[in-house]
Design goal:
14 strands, 20 helices, 585 residues, alpha/beta, 37% helix
């Protein structure tokens, strides 16, 4: 297992813990990370303290023991630099400066570079981002980058490497090169051991919470807790498939008002209100969130990963991804995730429970950290898998509970091409059937009909906002039904009449050229699909390999190629006329 050290500003201790969790989830042993100086930290021990336990008061330069303890802290940190296989410089934006690097951090960075040059070391040196030119270290960093001595960090998932850090998240302490959590951090996560390609990773043994909490379970089918009252019997049966053991500790988080709000939001992204779609049930984001969390829990029994998955849609506004269309993010559909950390931090119910469980909000605010919860297309992750199962079950009638159970029980944790954990099949025949059934489902999400509906809802909401009838914040407190009622009764005839015509419309058009005198828009949509991993064992040699299904199955390869080759017509729309309000009317 490669050893990694995280350097950077000691004021950004929560960001250091964020990156610590990220790298441990990818098989690294993080032996030190940047942090301030605490009263009760023991510098005589070799290993840094595990996040999750209070280290007492934060020391400042005015404390009598500060200088002595800071020296010992530096000694420990530099000793760990000598042991590291990978050095990661976490130069987040700070003080309004892009890629900020303080004096201590540049000293540590230079020390590792010189170790490679003068002492024959081969440390992999990664810097989060290029510092701004206004910093004194810019030319030095650029020089080492040009010489290929260092690299700019490339996050394998394709997500943005940095998240803006608000000023109120900074620890008000002296910038030392070594940082540490000021508030109570979270329990350490067991690092994932490196596994060779083809090896099956068994599910992690169940962990109990602090003081024995976490080992109690409930029967989701019969549970009468108020926070689960909205779940229909069919949904409860489905959730029990995802995790026969429903952890009781999860109920406190599910009961939070911020989670209960999701009961009023549909997985159809507003298409329930169109005559073009007829769904037997109002399948909710609340149901999806619980399902995604249970998948992670079933395979990992890890609280942080499970909560990250539970909260992954907590920032979803009314009409879900239609608001991504409004935000000009129709092809990635991630813009609505920006409020996730804020909503978690501002929730009294959630933060109170996190504190009891020894978990920091920053450790459960980004499900992209955990490959089992999220990974790039065409991988299988809990989010993508859950909405494929539940949408196909409750909205599009593609399969029944027995079919879901057969597919799900064949899944296990495998290692993908990037040596990251990913859910995959053990039986090629089931993987084939699963893929052939869900490709038509994925086609629905970017069909002409879906794009026209989503963009129309986006334009209606934007028109309501521009006219002063709604605000963005309203979409985070109102249910979709309440927003629809407000649109129809707002008194703005062009908007309300257009929405009524939308509700009555039974067809959409698609065209390569724009049409006049009607609602005609040019929009694209995210292309979703899964090409699952399959564990295959040779009958002759008994050797186990893991490959994408398309690499083993010519039929699936052709189906996926045809699916990806489908072109989205440039223009879609409805025959009625509506001109969205582009400015405040």
């Amino acid at each position: 297992m490669k050893k990694l050290v995280i350097a950077g500003s000691s004021k950004l201790y929560e960001r250091a813990l964020y990156w610590r969790g990220y790298f441990e989830g990818r098989g690294y042993e993080v032996i030190d990370w940047t942090r301030p100086i605490f009263e009760n930290e023991d510098f005589s021990v070799e290993e840094p303290p595990a996040p999750g336990f209070s280290l007492g008061r934060l020391l400042t330069p005015g404390d009598s023991s500060y200088a002595e303890r800071l020296i010992k802290c530096y000694q420990n940190f530099y000793r760990h630099l000598d042991q590291a296989d990978t050095f990661f410089l976490m130069n987040e934006d700070q003080h309004g400066i892009e890629g900020y690097i303080g004096t201590s951090a540049i000293a540590e960075f230079t020390y590792v570079v010189m170790g490679n040059l003068n002492r024959g070391r081969k440390v992999d040196i990664q810097i989060l981002k290029m510092p701004s030119k206004e910093q004194n270290c810019y030319n030095e960093v650029k020089f080492w980058l040009d010489q290929e001595i260092i690299e700019i960090f490339h996050r394998p998932t394709g997500k943005k490497a940095t998240i803006p850090v608000a000023d109120n998240q900074l620890v008000k302490s002296v910038e030392s090169g070594v940082s540490k959590p000021v508030a109570e951090p979270a329990l350490a996560t067991t690092p994932t051991a490196a596994v060779t390609e083809g090896e099956v990773v068994e599910s992690v043994p169940r962990k109990t919470g602090l003081f024995g909490r976490g080992d109690k379970t409930i029967d989701i089918v019969t549970c009468k807790k108020r926070c689960l009252r909205s779940l229909r019997p069919e949904v409860r049966q489905y959730l029990k498939i995802l995790s026969p053991e429903f952890p009781a500790w999860l109920l406190k988080y599910i009961a939070a008002p911020e989670m209960q709000r999701l009961i009023g939001l549909g997985m159809s992204c507003g298409l329930d209100h169109s005559s073009l779609y007829t769904y037997p049930f109002f399948h909710t984001v609340f149901e999806h969130s619980i399902g995604a969390a249970l998948i992670v829990w079933n395979f990992t029994h890890d609280k942080k990963q499970t909560l990250s998955s539970l909260f992954h849609d907590i920032a979803t506004p009314a009409f879900k991804h239609a608001i991504d269309f409004m935000n000009n993010d129709s092809e990635t559909q991630e813009s609505t995730e920006e409020r996730t950390a804020q909503i978690i931090r501002e929730s009294r119910a959630i933060t109170k429970q996190l504190k009891k469980d020894g978990i920091l909000p920053s450790e459960v605010s980004d499900y992209h950290l955990h490959p089992i919860a999220d990974n790039p297309v065409p991988g299988v992750a809990s989010d993508r898998l859950e909405y494929t199962f539940s949408n196909g079950l409750f909205m599009y009638d593609i399969w029944d509970l027995e079919k879901v159970k057969a597919f799900y029980q064949d899944l296990t944790i495998l290692k993908n091409e990037n040596d990251l954990d990913e859910l995959g099949f053990q039986t090629p025949e089931l993987a084939n059937e699963f893929t052939k059934l869900n490709l038509p489902l994925f086609s629905i999400y970017h069909s002409d009909k879906s794009r026209a509906n989503m963009q129309f809802i986006a334009d209606i909401i934007q028109s309501m906002i521009n006219s002063g009838y709604l605000t963005i914040d309203d979409l985070y407190v109102m249910s979709e039904r309440e927003v629809v009622d407000w649109i129809l009764s707002c008194g703005d005839r062009p908007v309300s009449d257009a929405f009524r015509q939308f509700q009555r419309a039974t067809t959409v058009f698609s065209s390569g050229v724009a049409k006049k005198n009607c609602y005609c828009i040019s929009t694209k949509s995210k292309v979703r699909y899964m090409n699952p991993l399959v564990r295959k064992q040779s009958a002759k040699t008994q050797k186990v390999t893991v490959k994408r299904l398309s690499d083993l199955d010519d039929e699936i390869e052709e189906l996926i190629d045809d699916y990806l080759a489908e072109k989205q017509p440039k223009y879609v729309g409805f025959d009625f006329d509506f001109k969205p309000y582009t400015t405040a009317e």
